[in-house]
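FAQ: What does a ligand-bound record look like?

Like this one, built around S-adenosylmethionine:
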Amino acid sequence: MTDDQPTTGVVLAGTDAPLAEGELVVLSDRKGRRYLVTLAAGEEWHSHAGVVPHDDFIGRTEGMAVRTNRNMEVTVFRPTREEFVLKMKRGAQVVYTKDQAMIVAAADIQPGCTVVEAGAGSGALTMALLAAVGPRGRVISYERRDDHLAHARRNVARWLGGEPDNWECRAGDLADALPGLSAHRIVLDMLEPWRMVAGAAEALAPGGIVLAYMPTVPQVMRFSETLWADGRFALVKTSETLVRNWDVDGLAVRPAHRMVAHTAFLTTARRVLRREEGGPPLPRRKLDTGPAIDWDAVDRGGAQEDAAAERDEDDGDA
Ligand SMILES: C[S@@+](CC[C@H](N)C(=O)[O-])C[C@H]1O[C@@H](n2cnc3c(N)ncnc32)[C@H](O)[C@@H]1O
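The answer part, i.e. the structure of the complex:
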Protein backbone atom coordinates (compact mmCIF):
# COMPACT_ATOMS: atom_id res chain seq x y z
CA MET A 1 0.00 0.00 0.00
CA THR A 2 1.42 3.43 -0.91
CA ASP A 3 1.35 6.47 1.36
CA ASP A 4 -1.65 8.03 -0.36
CA GLN A 5 -3.90 5.06 0.52
CA PRO A 6 -6.20 5.10 3.53
CA THR A 7 -4.93 2.59 6.09
CA THR A 8 -8.17 0.64 5.72
CA GLY A 9 -7.05 -0.69 2.34
CA VAL A 10 -9.39 0.69 -0.32
CA VAL A 11 -7.61 1.62 -3.54
CA LEU A 12 -8.61 5.22 -4.15
CA ALA A 13 -10.15 6.18 -7.47
CA GLY A 14 -7.62 8.40 -9.22
CA THR A 15 -4.62 6.48 -7.94
CA ASP A 16 -1.87 6.34 -10.53
CA ALA A 17 -1.37 2.57 -10.43
CA PRO A 18 -2.36 -0.09 -12.95
CA LEU A 19 -5.59 -1.98 -12.28
CA ALA A 20 -4.82 -5.26 -10.59
CA GLU A 21 -6.51 -8.64 -10.37
CA GLY A 22 -8.96 -8.70 -7.44
CA GLU A 23 -9.71 -4.97 -7.64
CA LEU A 24 -13.20 -3.59 -7.88
CA VAL A 25 -13.86 -1.54 -11.00
CA VAL A 26 -16.85 0.27 -12.45
CA LEU A 27 -17.53 -0.06 -16.16
CA SER A 28 -19.50 2.83 -17.64
CA ASP A 29 -21.24 2.51 -21.02
CA ARG A 30 -22.20 5.24 -23.51
CA LYS A 31 -25.51 5.87 -21.75
CA GLY A 32 -23.81 6.29 -18.38
CA ARG A 33 -25.02 2.89 -17.07
CA ARG A 34 -22.52 1.55 -14.58
CA TYR A 35 -21.53 -2.01 -13.71
CA LEU A 36 -19.49 -3.11 -10.71
CA VAL A 37 -16.97 -5.86 -11.47
CA THR A 38 -14.21 -7.60 -9.49
CA LEU A 39 -11.33 -8.17 -11.90
CA ALA A 40 -10.28 -11.82 -12.25
CA ALA A 41 -7.74 -13.07 -14.79
CA GLY A 42 -9.28 -15.31 -17.45
CA GLU A 43 -12.89 -14.22 -16.74
CA GLU A 44 -15.22 -12.27 -19.00
CA TRP A 45 -17.67 -9.45 -18.40
CA HIS A 46 -20.97 -10.01 -20.20
CA SER A 47 -23.72 -7.45 -20.73
CA HIS A 48 -26.19 -6.26 -23.37
CA ALA A 49 -23.24 -4.23 -24.72
CA GLY A 50 -21.28 -7.43 -25.45
CA VAL A 51 -18.37 -9.27 -23.90
CA VAL A 52 -14.97 -8.02 -22.68
CA PRO A 53 -12.26 -10.23 -21.13
CA HIS A 54 -11.20 -8.94 -17.69
CA ASP A 55 -7.61 -9.29 -18.97
CA ASP A 56 -8.32 -6.27 -21.22
CA PHE A 57 -8.51 -4.16 -18.02
CA ILE A 58 -5.91 -5.81 -15.78
CA GLY A 59 -2.62 -3.90 -15.94
CA ARG A 60 -4.27 -0.90 -17.66
CA THR A 61 -5.17 2.49 -16.17
CA GLU A 62 -8.48 4.06 -15.10
CA GLY A 63 -10.24 6.20 -17.68
CA MET A 64 -9.46 3.83 -20.53
CA ALA A 65 -12.23 2.87 -22.98
CA VAL A 66 -12.33 -0.75 -24.20
CA ARG A 67 -14.40 -2.18 -27.08
CA THR A 68 -16.71 -5.13 -26.53
CA ASN A 69 -17.12 -7.88 -29.10
CA ARG A 70 -20.24 -5.95 -30.23
CA ASN A 71 -18.12 -2.86 -30.93
CA MET A 72 -19.55 -0.91 -27.99
CA GLU A 73 -17.18 1.02 -25.77
CA VAL A 74 -17.05 0.84 -21.98
CA THR A 75 -14.80 3.01 -19.82
CA VAL A 76 -13.17 1.59 -16.71
CA PHE A 77 -12.78 3.38 -13.36
CA ARG A 78 -12.06 2.50 -9.78
CA PRO A 79 -15.43 3.03 -8.06
CA THR A 80 -16.23 5.95 -5.83
CA ARG A 81 -17.91 5.00 -2.56
CA GLU A 82 -21.19 6.29 -3.96
CA GLU A 83 -20.92 4.02 -7.00
CA PHE A 84 -20.09 1.07 -4.80
CA VAL A 85 -23.05 1.70 -2.48
CA LEU A 86 -25.48 1.98 -5.40
CA LYS A 87 -24.33 -1.35 -6.78
CA MET A 88 -23.54 -3.42 -3.69
CA LYS A 89 -25.90 -6.11 -2.38
CA ARG A 90 -28.21 -4.92 0.39
CA GLY A 91 -30.32 -6.34 3.11
CA ALA A 92 -31.64 -3.14 4.61
CA GLN A 93 -32.30 0.11 2.79
CA VAL A 94 -29.15 2.24 2.61
CA VAL A 95 -28.48 5.89 3.42
CA TYR A 96 -27.51 7.61 0.17
CA THR A 97 -24.69 10.06 -0.37
CA LYS A 98 -26.60 13.31 0.09
CA ASP A 99 -27.75 12.19 3.53
CA GLN A 100 -24.44 10.55 4.47
CA ALA A 101 -22.72 13.86 3.80
CA MET A 102 -25.22 15.79 5.90
CA ILE A 103 -25.06 13.23 8.72
CA VAL A 104 -21.27 13.60 8.88
CA ALA A 105 -21.61 17.40 8.89
CA ALA A 106 -24.62 17.73 11.20
CA ALA A 107 -23.24 15.30 13.78
CA ASP A 108 -19.79 16.93 13.43
CA ILE A 109 -18.06 13.62 12.89
CA GLN A 110 -14.36 14.41 12.93
CA PRO A 111 -11.15 12.42 12.57
CA GLY A 112 -10.48 10.71 15.90
CA CYS A 113 -14.15 10.54 16.97
CA THR A 114 -15.68 7.47 18.54
CA VAL A 115 -19.06 6.97 16.88
CA VAL A 116 -21.71 4.47 17.93
CA GLU A 117 -24.26 3.71 15.20
CA ALA A 118 -27.31 1.49 14.78
CA GLY A 119 -28.53 -0.27 12.84
CA ALA A 120 -25.64 -1.21 10.63
CA GLY A 121 -28.16 -2.36 7.99
CA SER A 122 -26.26 -2.76 4.72
CA GLY A 123 -23.20 -0.91 5.97
CA ALA A 124 -23.51 2.11 3.66
CA LEU A 125 -23.55 4.72 6.41
CA THR A 126 -20.90 2.73 8.27
CA MET A 127 -18.49 3.27 5.37
CA ALA A 128 -19.11 7.02 5.47
CA LEU A 129 -18.59 7.08 9.24
CA LEU A 130 -15.34 5.10 8.97
CA ALA A 131 -14.07 7.51 6.31
CA ALA A 132 -14.98 10.50 8.49
CA VAL A 133 -13.41 9.26 11.73
CA GLY A 134 -10.23 8.14 9.95
CA PRO A 135 -7.72 5.63 11.28
CA ARG A 136 -7.44 7.42 14.66
CA GLY A 137 -11.20 7.20 15.22
CA ARG A 138 -13.49 4.29 15.96
CA VAL A 139 -16.92 3.17 14.77
CA ILE A 140 -19.00 0.75 16.84
CA SER A 141 -21.99 -0.54 14.88
CA TYR A 142 -24.93 -2.45 16.35
CA GLU A 143 -27.39 -4.50 14.31
CA ARG A 144 -30.14 -6.65 15.73
CA ARG A 145 -30.79 -8.75 12.60
CA ASP A 146 -28.21 -11.39 11.78
CA ASP A 147 -28.96 -11.30 8.05
CA HIS A 148 -28.46 -7.52 7.93
CA LEU A 149 -25.30 -7.80 10.00
CA ALA A 150 -23.90 -10.26 7.46
CA HIS A 151 -24.65 -7.79 4.63
CA ALA A 152 -22.97 -4.96 6.50
CA ARG A 153 -19.86 -7.01 7.22
CA ARG A 154 -19.58 -8.27 3.66
CA ASN A 155 -20.09 -4.84 2.11
CA VAL A 156 -17.66 -3.03 4.40
CA ALA A 157 -15.04 -5.75 3.90
CA ARG A 158 -15.51 -5.75 0.15
CA TRP A 159 -15.15 -1.98 -0.03
CA LEU A 160 -12.22 -1.67 2.34
CA GLY A 161 -10.43 -4.90 1.43
CA GLY A 162 -11.22 -6.43 4.83
CA GLU A 163 -12.84 -5.33 8.09
CA PRO A 164 -10.82 -2.41 9.43
CA ASP A 165 -9.27 -2.60 12.89
CA ASN A 166 -11.13 0.52 14.04
CA TRP A 167 -14.58 -0.98 13.33
CA GLU A 168 -16.49 -3.10 15.82
CA CYS A 169 -19.62 -4.66 14.37
CA ARG A 170 -21.77 -6.13 17.10
CA ALA A 171 -24.96 -8.17 17.00
CA GLY A 172 -27.73 -6.98 19.30
CA ASP A 173 -30.18 -4.26 20.21
CA LEU A 174 -28.43 -0.94 20.80
CA ALA A 175 -30.87 -0.13 23.61
CA ASP A 176 -29.36 -2.93 25.70
CA ALA A 177 -25.76 -1.86 25.02
CA LEU A 178 -25.90 1.93 25.17
CA PRO A 179 -25.71 2.49 28.93
CA GLY A 180 -22.35 0.65 29.01
CA LEU A 181 -20.85 2.54 26.06
CA SER A 182 -18.96 5.78 25.78
CA ALA A 183 -18.96 7.80 22.55
CA HIS A 184 -18.50 11.30 21.15
CA ARG A 185 -21.35 10.83 18.67
CA ILE A 186 -24.35 8.50 18.38
CA VAL A 187 -25.97 8.01 14.97
CA LEU A 188 -29.33 6.25 14.75
CA ASP A 189 -30.91 4.90 11.55
CA MET A 190 -33.66 2.69 12.92
CA LEU A 191 -37.41 2.49 13.39
CA GLU A 192 -37.59 3.62 17.02
CA PRO A 193 -34.74 6.01 17.82
CA TRP A 194 -36.63 7.41 20.84
CA ARG A 195 -35.93 4.11 22.62
CA MET A 196 -32.23 5.10 22.59
CA VAL A 197 -32.56 8.55 24.16
CA ALA A 198 -31.98 7.63 27.83
CA GLY A 199 -29.08 5.32 26.92
CA ALA A 200 -27.58 7.97 24.63
CA ALA A 201 -27.58 10.41 27.54
CA GLU A 202 -25.57 7.85 29.54
CA ALA A 203 -23.12 7.12 26.71
CA LEU A 204 -22.44 10.75 25.71
CA ALA A 205 -20.41 13.21 27.74
CA PRO A 206 -21.86 16.74 27.95
CA GLY A 207 -21.36 18.39 24.55
CA GLY A 208 -21.71 15.08 22.68
CA ILE A 209 -24.16 14.77 19.80
CA VAL A 210 -26.95 12.34 19.02
CA LEU A 211 -28.42 12.21 15.52
CA ALA A 212 -31.39 10.26 14.21
CA TYR A 213 -32.29 9.70 10.56
CA MET A 214 -36.06 9.21 10.20
CA PRO A 215 -38.28 8.96 7.13
CA THR A 216 -41.52 10.10 8.74
CA VAL A 217 -42.87 13.10 10.64
CA PRO A 218 -44.37 11.06 13.51
CA GLN A 219 -40.89 9.63 14.16
CA VAL A 220 -39.37 13.12 14.22
CA MET A 221 -42.06 14.28 16.65
CA ARG A 222 -41.64 11.38 19.01
CA PHE A 223 -37.83 11.50 18.94
CA SER A 224 -37.76 15.27 19.55
CA GLU A 225 -40.32 15.13 22.35
CA THR A 226 -38.40 12.30 24.01
CA LEU A 227 -35.17 14.33 23.84
CA TRP A 228 -36.84 17.34 25.47
CA ALA A 229 -38.56 15.22 28.09
CA ASP A 230 -35.28 13.54 29.08
CA GLY A 231 -33.88 16.87 30.30
CA ARG A 232 -30.29 16.08 29.20
CA PHE A 233 -30.51 17.32 25.61
CA ALA A 234 -30.68 20.77 24.06
CA LEU A 235 -30.25 22.42 20.64
CA VAL A 236 -32.70 19.95 19.12
CA LYS A 237 -32.75 20.64 15.38
CA THR A 238 -34.40 18.96 12.40
CA SER A 239 -33.60 19.32 8.71
CA GLU A 240 -33.98 17.53 5.42
CA THR A 241 -31.69 17.63 2.42
CA LEU A 242 -32.91 18.05 -1.15
CA VAL A 243 -30.47 17.68 -4.03
CA ARG A 244 -31.61 18.85 -7.45
CA ASN A 245 -29.43 17.72 -10.35
CA TRP A 246 -29.09 19.84 -13.49
CA ASP A 247 -28.71 18.88 -17.14
CA VAL A 248 -26.06 20.97 -18.88
CA ASP A 249 -25.98 20.46 -22.64
CA GLY A 250 -25.23 23.43 -24.87
CA LEU A 251 -27.99 25.97 -24.27
CA ALA A 252 -30.24 23.33 -22.72
CA VAL A 253 -29.25 24.10 -19.17
CA ARG A 254 -32.00 23.33 -16.69
CA PRO A 255 -32.88 21.25 -13.65
CA ALA A 256 -33.27 17.54 -14.35
CA HIS A 257 -36.90 16.49 -14.79
CA ARG A 258 -36.71 13.92 -12.00
CA MET A 259 -35.35 14.11 -8.49
CA VAL A 260 -35.52 12.15 -5.26
CA ALA A 261 -37.96 14.34 -3.36
CA HIS A 262 -37.79 12.67 0.03
CA THR A 263 -35.55 10.26 1.85
CA ALA A 264 -35.53 11.12 5.56
CA PHE A 265 -35.24 13.88 8.15
CA LEU A 266 -32.21 14.44 10.36
CA THR A 267 -32.69 15.41 13.97
CA THR A 268 -29.65 16.31 16.06
CA ALA A 269 -29.29 17.27 19.72
CA ARG A 270 -26.46 18.15 22.11
CA ARG A 271 -26.00 16.45 25.47
CA VAL A 272 -26.20 19.00 28.29
CA LEU A 273 -26.27 18.87 32.08
CA ARG A 274 -29.66 18.65 33.71
CA ARG A 275 -30.97 22.00 34.96
CA GLU A 276 -30.40 20.99 38.59
CA GLU A 277 -26.76 20.06 37.76
CA GLY A 278 -26.09 23.53 36.29
CA GLY A 279 -27.43 22.91 32.77
CA PRO A 280 -29.54 25.28 30.65
CA PRO A 281 -33.26 25.94 31.15
CA LEU A 282 -35.41 23.89 28.83
CA PRO A 283 -37.23 26.05 26.29
CA ARG A 284 -40.96 26.53 26.64
CA ARG A 285 -42.70 24.32 24.10
CA LYS A 286 -44.63 26.42 21.59
CA LEU A 287 -47.50 24.05 21.02
CA ASP A 288 -49.33 21.43 22.93
CA THR A 289 -49.02 18.40 20.63
CA GLY A 290 -52.65 17.57 21.32
CA PRO A 291 -54.16 14.24 22.21
CA ALA A 292 -51.72 11.39 22.68
CA ILE A 293 -50.85 9.58 19.46
CA ASP A 294 -51.02 5.80 19.41
CA TRP A 295 -47.37 5.41 18.41
CA ASP A 296 -47.49 1.64 18.37
CA ALA A 297 -50.22 1.79 15.75
CA VAL A 298 -48.05 4.19 13.73
CA ASP A 299 -45.16 1.72 13.93
CA ARG A 300 -47.27 -1.24 12.88
CA GLY A 301 -48.38 0.73 9.83
CA GLY A 302 -44.94 0.05 8.36
CA ALA A 303 -44.36 3.74 7.68
CA GLN A 304 -40.60 3.38 7.75
CA GLU A 305 -40.59 0.43 5.37
CA ASP A 306 -42.85 2.28 2.89
CA ALA A 307 -40.68 5.36 2.93
CA ALA A 308 -37.55 3.22 2.71
CA ALA A 309 -38.88 1.44 -0.36
CA GLU A 310 -39.46 4.80 -2.02
CA ARG A 311 -35.97 5.99 -1.30
CA ASP A 312 -34.57 2.84 -2.93
CA GLU A 313 -33.90 4.13 -6.42
CA ASP A 314 -31.48 1.50 -7.51
CA ASP A 315 -31.75 -2.26 -7.27
CA GLY A 316 -28.01 -2.84 -7.14
CA ASP A 317 -26.42 -5.50 -9.28
CA ALA A 318 -23.27 -6.67 -7.60
C1 LIG B 1 -32.62 1.39 7.46
S1 LIG B 1 -31.59 0.16 8.11
C2 LIG B 1 -30.01 0.91 8.35
C3 LIG B 1 -29.28 1.13 7.05
C4 LIG B 1 -27.85 1.59 7.21
N1 LIG B 1 -27.78 2.86 7.92
C5 LIG B 1 -27.16 1.69 5.86
O1 LIG B 1 -26.87 2.82 5.42
O2 LIG B 1 -26.91 0.65 5.23
C6 LIG B 1 -32.16 0.01 9.77
C7 LIG B 1 -31.50 -1.14 10.51
O3 LIG B 1 -31.63 -0.93 11.88
C8 LIG B 1 -31.74 -2.19 12.51
N2 LIG B 1 -32.27 -1.91 13.85
C9 LIG B 1 -33.50 -1.42 14.17
N3 LIG B 1 -33.60 -1.23 15.49
C10 LIG B 1 -32.40 -1.59 16.04
C11 LIG B 1 -31.89 -1.59 17.36
N4 LIG B 1 -32.63 -1.21 18.38
N5 LIG B 1 -30.61 -2.02 17.57
C12 LIG B 1 -29.85 -2.44 16.53
N6 LIG B 1 -30.29 -2.45 15.24
C13 LIG B 1 -31.55 -2.02 14.99
C14 LIG B 1 -32.64 -2.96 11.57
O4 LIG B 1 -32.53 -4.35 11.74
C15 LIG B 1 -32.13 -2.48 10.21
O5 LIG B 1 -31.14 -3.35 9.72
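Follow-up question: can I read anything off the structure? Yes, for example: The two ends are 25 Å apart (CA to CA).
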